[in-house]
What does this fold into?
Amino acid sequence: MQVISPWDAAKSMTEAPDTPAETEFSGRRGRLFWLALKLGFLTVLTLGMYRFWMKTRLRRWYWSAFRPMGHPLEYVGDPWEKLLGFLIAVVFLAFYIGVVNLLLMFASFSLFNGNVAAYVLSFIGVIPLWFYASYRARRYVLARTRWRGIRFGLAPGAWGYAGRALWHWFLAIVTLGILWPRKAFYLEKYITDRTYFGAEAMEQGGKWTGLLRPWLGVWLPLIAAIVCTAAVIYFETNAISSIPQLDGPLTPGALENDMVHRAEASLFQMLPALVVIYLIWQPLALINYNVKRLRYLTSNKHLAGAQLSLAPRFWRVTGIYFWGYTLASLVAMILLVPIAIVAIATAVGLGAEIGLELGAMGHLSQVAMTAIAIGSYFLLFLMWSVLMHAFIRFPLMRHYAESFQIANPTVLNAITQRPRDEFGEAEGFAEALDVGAAI
Amino acid sequence: MSDTMTIHVGPRPAALGALGTYFDGETAEAQPARLRIEEGQQVLVIEVRGQQKVWPLTDIRRVPDQADREQLVLALAGDPVVRLVTDEHRLAQRCPNLSRRNSHVKRGRVLGWAMAALASVALIVFVLVPRMADQLAEYIPPEGEKALGETTLSQIRTAMNQANLEPLPFCENAEGVAALKAMETRLSDAANLPVPLSVHVLDHPMVNAFALPGGHIVFFKGLIDTAETPEELGAVFAHEMGHVVSRDPTRHALRSAGSIGVLGLLFGDFAGGAVVLFLTERLIEAQYSQAAEANADTFAMATLENAEVRPGALGDMFQKFLDKYGDAEGTSAHFLSHPKLGDRIANSSARQAEVTATGFTDTPLLTDQQWTALKGICR
Ligand SMILES: [Zn+2]
It folds into this structure.
């Protein structure tokens, strides 16, 4: 019997170009749980300084777990460059808060005798910076991501992104949200078309209208809810002014009024049910939109003749969110108990001045209880973030990996390396402005 | 037969044969590789397509935090892109520096830049912003200055009474207000002020008084309770007028006006509230420069003399602060924040001795009835 070594097999195997390459997902939830717990604990101990290290190590873990065609992604970001980037952003923001706001305040008081103008301008000034920061953060993460030894990259264009983001947000707002998916599509296209794997650019295909149907599931009930609220407010203010007429003699006008009131009454009776239906529907519709959006946008991405595809399932994602948040909330509530007890005890103690009667003993137990409360408070934050990793991000990523495919993958073999993207401020602005990055 | 794995375990195995995947960092191709250790040279030989890559065992690094523990992802120190993936874990035992850090980032340089960044923040906060505020204060129009004072006052009142969410109340007993007005008229007639004053008393036990931009002077109830004679209170009044004339509060408020609300925006409700409270306290404590305080004292004594009030009253009041608080806690009055309070008391008594020698006569600042009314302004 002839034994074929895996090496020979790998050497002789020619991948059929028409079978899409699957994605593996490795890594166990328990390991991630302990890693996140350890890193989170260190972050709390160092008053947040360790968070750059925590972020780096968690990303390394997640990236290496995601293995398209069996080859792991690699994250090569460095915590020190993150720390430096954060400090650079702090310098800039200190300048912004100190100097720019001082000038704005001066102008505002000099010209308008008040500070409102300065606040408004200062806030408006931060908005483009926020978009700028999110693009720069994406660029940093891509520049530090590798697959099969080849770097990803994002071409410069943060201000272009900020400008487009402002424009699309403006359009979405003035059209009462119906153009929201258009914004999502064009911003994603802007980023994807500037994304590189090695020397090869990615391309976002498709049309924005491909996102419209799932969005209508969110948008129509939202508009209906707004209209309903407006109607209820209108009826309520009208009902007060028309009540005295009911007690008057029965005229045709009063009868009409009565009918209107009956209609109102039935609307008010239905109201709680409508609110409940809406509150259940809306998160589901949002999840559905996000799932469909991810599926559509990913499945229309091309890379050098290879085609990506992703098919997350709505109920699966909903289940992950539901059970993940249920579990996390349960743990959070258990941790909240000691905090609540101390808060109540302190309030009662202050009210009745029990502290004086209890003397030293009471004082001692109060100190211990406060310590327990503070400990629980930090533990709450720590456990919440750990559970989010273990029960939301981990299962979501695993689920995405199940259906992430690359069609015609052999073309990727020829892709060549791109030069390193030095990146002074890393994702400092995103960190300082708290722009929500994925992990 | 050549492809069978031959692995020798032990402290110094003779050879190692294993398989792996090699990424050369030039193209994305995953290249099957055969691995062996050349014992003589202590190197790992990676055979890829008939070529041999030679990695010294001491230069092999592990890529850390891998989710998949079945595989080793190895890198070569000094080469940023090449990678070797293998499931042959025994290879790890042969590489002495496997866990050493392998990064493009030079920590020394980062630390240098970090220091520079912190220095820039300090420069902005402690040099640039105060200088700019001092310059801008010269150009702010009177209405703007008054609005700045009003805004700052309402910020202070809100911040000092956070428990009730209501601003700290003013004391407005009619007879007390009239008495305070009488004191104000007498002193400001002697002072030649550039702007009309607006004087308030806040219902708070703090022993303090402060001036705000645009001619606002604010007393706390605690200060009125502490003063034993109308002259002592009048001395503090005149001192605050000195600040109004020199526009110290305008410079001071401009420094923090830029940051207060915006910090609140950036830090969100909870942390933002704390920051605003902190800045407000700084504002009340109003740690002006030593020269600014000395000038205000000089102005106060000159004003008191013009108004036929003993300039020594200022020293008497300062002595009360010193007796009441000394070095203990609760020294929140801005008169106390200064380490040279003793000097200022000495200055005041020296001035009193001087004017007494030249035959200075004083007239009471308020009648006994007025003084009683002023004491009860918060009733
Ligand atoms: Zn002063």
Summary: The pocket of zinc ion is lined by residues B 239, 243, 288, 293, 296, 334 (CB under 6 Å). Chain A touches chain B through 71 residues (CB under 8 Å). The CA atoms of residues 132 and 158 of chain A lie 5 Å apart.
